[in-house]
Amino acid sequence: MTQRIHDYLERTAHEAPCLVMDLERVRDNYQAFAHAMPDTRVFYAIKANPAPAILELLAELSSCFDAASVAEIRMALAAGATPDRISYSNTIKRERDIATAFDLGVRQFAFDCDAELEKIARVAPGSRVVCRLLCDGEGADWPLSKKFGCAPAMAGRLMRRAHELGLEAHGLAFHVGSQQPNPGMWDGALATCADLFRQLGEQGIEMKMVNLGGGFPARYLRDVPQVEMYGQAITGSLKRHFGNRIPQTIIEPGRGLVGDAGVIRSEIVLISKKDDDDPVRWVYLDIGKFGGLAETIDEAIRYPIRTDHDGEELAPVVLAGPTCDSVDVMYEKEPYLLPVSIEIGETVTIESTGAYTATYASNGFNGFDPLRCVCI
């Protein structure tokens, strides 16, 4: 928790759970990426946290934006970004949404199959297209499935088809999995990209860009490498695989940019046991999976939780949310350690919750209000 957030929470009361974002930390994180990878353009993944104040700050800092929908494109434009700083990176788009984005001035679109490419050619003629590759997200805390991307051989064929359709076969994209703790995981994908660049170049198709995706981690309970280590590893891989013909590169950080800039203040609603002799208590908060903590699914993301009793005796608890749904349990397979002395009605702060919380919160499930986001 930053000092600015601490001071804000000390002087401000909230009846419902509230996410508080420190814009100065967001600024520092953006500048850290810009310093660690000075030749790479930052496209902030709007889906991580689309709070207008965050988008406006990043637009002022000359950030570009990774949009997953027309709504996110409009958000970026409203924040002050120009269309040339927006990439429509979702590979699953309605044709009318591609047309709307094109009308709004967006000229860069991602795809991973023939049908999506045909849509782009029909309603966004002459645009730059980026083909997404399947990528192994081994080791990531939140690995991605095969929902996005295609095999390298297919990508080569698709880029040749893009060229035939009059589109600009601009480059390739991949994603090594969200919350990726291994800076070396970009190396294999970059080797594949370099091979495709050479093959297509020999066929007269000169691609210009590699989208390195996201995956840059926020710090939760475990330490993670600094962004400088990722920059050094990726730069080394680019030189090793592309030699003196290094392409343009972009990154799409979301969690790594805003994750550690936010905390959620939550209230303990109930503490109970399921049996008189049960050594494990159940602690119910006023926020759960449906209120913004969706990334606790399969206990993938384990957030740091602070209380007013930190430093006192700890004991394992099952941590659950307030809704009448049995899946609304955050940590049960591996119980969480919290102070024995915590009591009903006290507050806890859930740290590093700046990314993928407010955007994952339901719009009133069980009548609970959506998670409110305050930027300071």
From TrEMBL:
Protein name: Ornithine decarboxylase
Family to which this protein belongs: Belongs to the Orn/Lys/Arg decarboxylase class-II family.
Tagged with keyword Transcription: no
GO biological process: putrescine biosynthetic process from arginine, via ornithine
Record's keyword terms, sorted: Lyase, Pyridoxal phosphate
Phylogenetic placement of the source organism: Bacteria, Pseudomonadati, Pseudomonadota, Alphaproteobacteria, Minwuiales
Organism: Minwuia thermotolerans
Domain Orn/DAP/Arg decarboxylase 2 N-terminal: 24-258
GO cellular component: cytoplasm
Cofactor(s) recorded in Swiss-Prot or TrEMBL: pyridoxal 5'-phosphate
Modified residues (N6-(pyridoxal phosphate)lysine): K47
Gene Ontology molecular function, alphabetical: ornithine decarboxylase activity
PANTHER family: ARGININE/DIAMINOPIMELATE/ORNITHINE DECARBOXYLASE, ORNITHINE DECARBOXYLASE 1-RELATED
Active site: C324 (proton donor)
Top-level division of the source organism's lineage: Bacteria
InterPro entries referenced in this protein's UniProt entry, alphabetically: Ala_racemase/Decarboxylase_C, De-COase2_CS, De-COase2_N, Orn/DAP/Arg_de-COase, Orn_de-COase, PLP-binding_barrel
PROSITE patterns: ODR_DC_2_2
SUPFAM superfamilies noted in UniProt: Alanine racemase C-terminal domain-like, PLP-binding barrel
